[in-house]
Amino acid sequence: MGEPVIAVGSGGTEAEAEAVVVSARLLEMAADDDAAGLADLLAAHPSRADAPAPWYSPARGAEPLTPLMVAAAYGSVACLDVLLSPPYLVDPNCASGASLSSPLHVAAAGGAPSAPASVFRLLAAGADPALLDHLQ
Fold first, then answer.
1. Hey, what long-range contacts does 118-123 have (CB within 8 A, 24 or more apart)?
2. pTM of this prediction?
3. Which of 73, 30, 74 is nearest to 48 (CA)?
4. Tens of pLDDT along 75-116?
5. Could you tell me the pLDDT band of residue 57, with boundaries at 50, 70 and 90?
6. Domain ranges of the chain
């Protein structure tokens, strides 16, 4: 995939533009289950591990999601392992602001062949199966 186009000089700083590019790349890696690339990029930008960034899907439209949520939706088990382990320990209950969906919700609804393994990983990391999203 190509790099996102960021208009620096239109009110944002170069550091903000870099953060947007890094966050977008993390989401792409999470969707592709590129655990090695994800770990390398997170090593350089650890504060982006749980930062939401815009993500589009036909089912949900455009919504700010975290790398953990995208990895859960796509059944990217290797990326879930990276994000749920030290040094990142991303919160498995962090819900999206728009839909209140948690990573567990999107893993269960995503339909990936590895969804059961994704759900298991999230539950083992402390995901709360009692959380409700906007659909419930």
1. 118/71, 118/72, 118/75, 118/76, 118/77, 118/80, 121/77, 121/80, 121/81, 121/84, 122/72, 122/80, 122/84, 122/92
2. 0.86
3. 30
4. 999 999 999 999 999 999 998 777 788 999 999 988 899 999
5. confident
6. 14-124
What is the 3-class SS of the chain, one letter each residue? Answer: CCCCCCCCCCCCCHHHHHHHHHHHHHHHHHHHCCHHHHHHHHHHCHHHCCCCEEEEECCCEEEEECHHHHHHHHCCHHHHHHHCCCCCCCCCCCCCCCCCCCHHHHHHHHCCCCHHHHHHHHHHCCCCCCCCCCCC
The two three-digit tokens of residue 83, written as one number: 């994000």
Q: How many CB atoms lie within 10 A of CB 45?
A: 16
For residue 127, list its beta bridge partners: none
Q: What's the CA gap between 31 and 16, in Å, rounded?
A: 23
Specify the CATH superfamily of domain 14-124: Ankyrin repeat-containing domain (1.25.40.20)
Residues making up the chain, counted from first to last? 136
Paired residues of 53 in beta bridges: 65
